[in-house]
Amino acid sequence: MSAKNGYITNLLRTAGRPHLRPESRERIRLAVVASFADVIRNADERYKYQTAEFTFFSPSIMIPVIIAIILVVAGAGTVIASDAAKPGDALFGVDKALEQTRLDFTISRTAKAEYLANIAQEREKERAQLEAEGKSQESASADVEVGQALDTAKQTIDEVRTKQEQEGDSHAVDTLTKVEDKLLELQQQHEERAQEHIQIEVKITGGTAKVEVRSAGLDATFTLATTDVEQIIAQIVQRTGLTDSQVRASIKIENEDQGDSQSDSNAGENENKNVNEHKDENSNSKNDVNQSTNTSLNINASAPDGSRGTDASNENRDTNTNTEGSGQDNSGD
Amino acid sequence: MYTPTRDTTGEADIPRLVREAQEGNEDSLSRLYELLSDRIYRYILMRVSHRETAEDITQVVFIEMIRSLPRYTERAGAKFSTWLFQIARHRLIDHYRRQKTVLSLDETLESHPNMQVDPAPPPDDALVSSGNLTNLLKHLSERQQTILHLFFQEEMSLREIADILDISIVSVRVEKHRALKKLKHMLLVKDSHLPLI
């Protein structure tokens, strides 16, 4: 059996190995070589064709171009989408960045100021939209954005106006005036809203003033070692970032040392003056503020001449400032 | 003791020749053809059993090789010849699709005397002649015939055969075992109806 097995395998191995006939071998070889030359030539032509016709469309160039196109298209979509973004939206940052980019590319100073005013208007529009949607928190954040945009616009306009006036460019100055008018309207709206939302309560007791500030995104309580109203206001402005006018419009002062409660912030300018006159009269008392009145302490933020309603009291301020600058902060904002 | 009879001269040069041919070297291509043409021809002849047809398919295989050469990449453990045999197998499949009928082995033998086995005397009784072996192989499946051919004639490893036939090594081993067992059985049955002569 095994002998036959070995015989079979040996037979299989040693079976005749037919070869190609010489003439067939040569014929096939010639055909193969000819085909090879044809393939090589075609490959060269393909290469030439590619290098000639596809110079600007080769993968090494086209792939980055295609990616760039996709990014531009996607970017354009993002730009369009971000334009409608409001504070709190994911694309709001993109919106602001694009505004800043456009601002950077705006060469004319007047145009720059005008664009900043437009940005402030845009913020106000966004805020109003959020308010209409009932998004109070987002609306409050948007209001902060409005305030910042207004501040930036006003600051830029002031700088530009100064330069334009120096250069005698009356036309540019006129343009700026129009822009400023536009901003003033926004400013008034902004401040009115601020009065509605900001609550500042000051309790004067034992020669110190305990201040509580409540507004959108702001919750601060601190104690000042002063009873001077101007110093208190200045400290509130410094610590909270609110504007002077916002503070004056919203502040309520209660003097427990005198058993007084001044909570009417809408009192008139004359009453305010009275307060300060009384302060002067009682300058010997560290803790006395507004000793002779039970009426509200009013700080008029909208004096016709633009000055503060407490100007009359400034002359006598030093009589009550023996603890000036030594405020004790219990808690930050 | 068995000694390989297949001419392996230049086998080690194949990878270099392939690389040169890929670079457009015609001489290297000719050399590749010289080294591999007979092997491919035999493999095809074994399947189609017709000389002219085998020659035509051999030519097609090498032309296909040229066209596919730029895409060929050398793999570790894989021979170029295995890749070429795969091409040959695919062209054979194409051939079978086009021509369902295969010429009889007898006709092939008549037209191709070299197909006969070497005139070496059998070890014992002359049970099998050259014609008998061919007739016996006819009773094996095509896959078994191919496996025996590639293993014993082309001296390929089981892995190479598995790659060419696109089957597992185990399948190759099993098919080879079954084929040999069947051949042995046919040889043992003297009174069988097989045309043992």
Can you walk me through this structure?
- Chain A has helices at 2-14, 22-53, 59-83, 92-104, 109-132, 136-167, 170-197, 229-240, 244-250, 269-281, 311-314; strands spanning 199-205, 208-215, 218-224, 251-255.
- Chain A has a four-stranded mixed beta sheet with strand order 3-2-1-4.
- The longest helix of chain A has 32 residues, at 22-53.
- Chain A is built from eleven helices and four strands; from the N terminus they run αααααααβββααβαα.
- In chain A, a hairpin with a 2-residue loop joins strand 2 (208-215) and strand 3 (218-224).
- Among the domains of chain A are: 92-99 and 106-196; 198-320, no CATH class.
- With 333 residues, chain A is of the alpha+beta class.
- Helices cover 61% and strands 8% of the residues of chain A.
- With 197 residues, chain B is mainly α.
- Chain B has two domains: 1-102, RNA polymerase sigma factor, region 2, helix turn helix motif (Rna Polymerase Sigma Factor, Chain: A, Orthogonal Bundle); 116-191, Arc Repressor Mutant, subunit A.
- Helices cover 63% and strands 0% of the residues of chain B.
- Chain B contains nine helices and no strands.
- In chain B, helix 1 packs across helix 2 (26-48).
- Chain A binds chain B through residues 1, 3-21, 24-25, 27-29, 31-33, 35-37, 39-40, 43, and chain B through 2, 5-6, 21, 24, 26, 29-30, 33-34, 37-38, 41-42, 45, 51, 55, 58-59, 62-63, 66-67, 69-70, 112, 114-118, 120, 122-124, 127-128, 130, 133, 148, 152-153, 180, 183-184, 187-188.
The helix fraction of chain B, in percent, is: 55-70%
Considering DSSP H and I runs of 4 or more, what fraction of the residues of chain A is helical? Answer: 55-70%
How far from one another are the termini of chain B? 28 Å
What percentage of the residues of chain B does DSSP assign to strands (E)? under 5%
Please summarize the sheet with the most strands of chain B. none
How many runs of DSSP E, i.e. beta strands of chain B?
Answer: 0
For the secondary structure, the number of strands of chain A is 4
Global morphology of chain A: elongated
Radius of gyration of chain A: 41 Å
The count of helical stretches of chain B stands at 9
